[in-house]
Design a protein that fits this description.
Shape: elongated
Radius of gyration: 25 Å
Strand order of the largest sheet: 4-5-7-6
Structural class: alpha+beta
Distance between the termini: 52 Å
Order of helices and strands: HHEHHEEHHHEEHHEE
Mean pLDDT: 86
Number of strands: 7
Largest sheet: 4 strands, antiparallel
Length: 240
């Protein structure tokens, strides 16, 4: 399985090659899809070289391909449709450490819309949207862990899904999980209570849909990590 963001990194790395970058910029600047001949002429390279780099851009998800006859003729004798290239609708974003500002914006938009429709506080609506997102992540955990997974497999799946979201989950010494990275770092720095509350709701939504996992989501802010921590089961104290 690919590491989180690996496809985006590959896509950006593809543009490091000068001819490939020039072809991409040429294609995206056109109002309509272009043929290999048009792209080759547009950047001043041989057709075979343009073909190689255009197809590589398609492979890396930066361009899309379609086919059409450019002569306007139809039926027998009209010739083969030309392979045409256009900019892909795929969005590429790479941040190190991993951030998920798009998810934050989506949850905030859902919260605002729900609040406006029901005349309720935005923070409450945002909390429900974030908790629902946690439930969605729990579905990914269960799909990864399989039916009736043992606790260790379930915990490993939780870590994997959290890592894909950018949280960098690490097991701590108390049978819990520490989140070494906040995917919403810049937002949390300026709007701490709002974003930390959203993080907590995501975590509680995740755990709420995984009752077999003996973890509790807690607000436990500290420098250099997420404000939320997954606490393990507390040891039983026996009286004397």
């Amino acid at each position: 399985m690919a590491e989180p963001g690996q496809g985006d990194v590959a896509g950006l790395a593809s543009l490091a090659e000068p001819t490939r970058r020039a072809l991409y910029l040429y294609v995206q600047a056109q109002e309509s899809a272009v043929s290999r001949d048009e792209a080759a002429a547009g950047v001043g390279v041989p057709r075979h070289k343009a073909k190689f780099h255009l197809d590589k851009l398609v492979e890396d998800g930066l361009l899309d391909v379609g086919f059409a006859r450019r002569t306007g003729r139809q039926g027998p004798g009209a010739g083969r449709p030309a392979k045409l290239y256009r900019r892909s609708a795929r969005e590429i974003s790479v941040t190190v450490p991993q951030r998920s500002y798009q998810l934050a914006g989506l949850l905030l938009a859902r919260g605002i819309e729900a609040a406006a429709g029901a005349a309720q506080p935005v923070t409450e609506a945002l909390g429900r949207a974030a908790r629902a997102e946690g439930g969605r992540l729990a579905g990914q955990v269960l799909a990864r862990a399989g039916e009736r997974p043992p606790p260790a497999a379930l915990l490993a799946a939780v870590r994997a899904v959290l890592d894909e979201q950018g949280y960098q989950a690490r097991e701590d010494g108390a049978a819990g999980l520490t989140l070494a990275n906040c995917p919403f770092h810049a937002l949390a720095a300026e709007h701490t209570a709002l974003v930390c509350g959203m993080n907590l709701e995501i975590a509680e939504g995740l755990l709420g849909a995984l009752p077999a996992l003996p973890l509790t989501a807690l607000l436990d802010p500290a420098e250099g990590r997420c404000c939320v921590r997954f606490a393990g089961p507390q040891p039983t104290r026996h009286g004397r």
